[in-house]
């Protein structure tokens, strides 16, 4: 049985979608079968970050409305054979009404995939409830900015309503130079404010912007952020922190930009 993990933030612009894309790619390289679901209806971006926007025929809302079968909505990333995604819809209306269908879909996906990664929309409205309610685990993504930390704290408070759910923290856009000059909160400072340890940090890295524009996960590039992301990937796939064999990671070839082919063998439909 797989695990459903929702990535949330409260505040937009903290790199949540880029984080989920890279963690999904990393987990797939550890021989885990991974499905990523974009639930940010009306403002989907996961397909763009992954370079899969030209492959979309159906979306998550089509699936929940039974306008297509699961195998028709799935997009497989040819660069990462174990990695699939379902994009969000560009229209958004009463998404909260689909919570039961979403929960049923996640239960089906957990029988076929090791990890179901859910990209939660920013904010704490009905889109938050829709994405979070079907998850087994929540990962809150924040940056060292005061507003982002405050919003992360609010999200962690709301997640207390889900006592069955394990909660983790990732700190993005960390700048060591600014921390040394006391111009930015450190990892320890943020952990103390939020009252929990983080499972990893991701440094500021220009390769992340390049990777977004190219539609290639930065975990496929040789850069400083890559090592940090691998540490987070290892922590997620293990109940306890697991050290990364960095030499082995560095020996891996960069994943080239290539063509994509969709497809899948799942034939399930979501019950209304």
Estimated radius of gyration: 18 Å
Number of separate strands? 8
Task: Please estimate the helix content.
Answer: 25-40%
Strand order of the largest sheet: 3-4-2-5-1-6-7-8
Annotation field: number of helices: 12
Question: What is the H-and-E element order?
Answer: EHEHHHEEHEHEHEHHEHHH
Secondary-structure-derived class: alpha/beta
Features:
272 residues; alpha/beta; 8-stranded mixed beta sheet; 12 helices
Overview of the molecule:
The chain has helices at about 15-30, 45-50, 60-65, 70-75, 100-110, 125-130, 145-160, 175-180, 185-195, 205-215, 225-235, 245-250; strands at about 5-10, 35-40, 75, 85, 115-120, 135-140, 165-175, 200-205. About 45% of the residues are buried. The chain has an 8-stranded mixed β-sheet with strand order 3-4-2-5-1-6-7-8, with helices on both faces. It is globular. It is α/β, with parallel strands linked by helices.
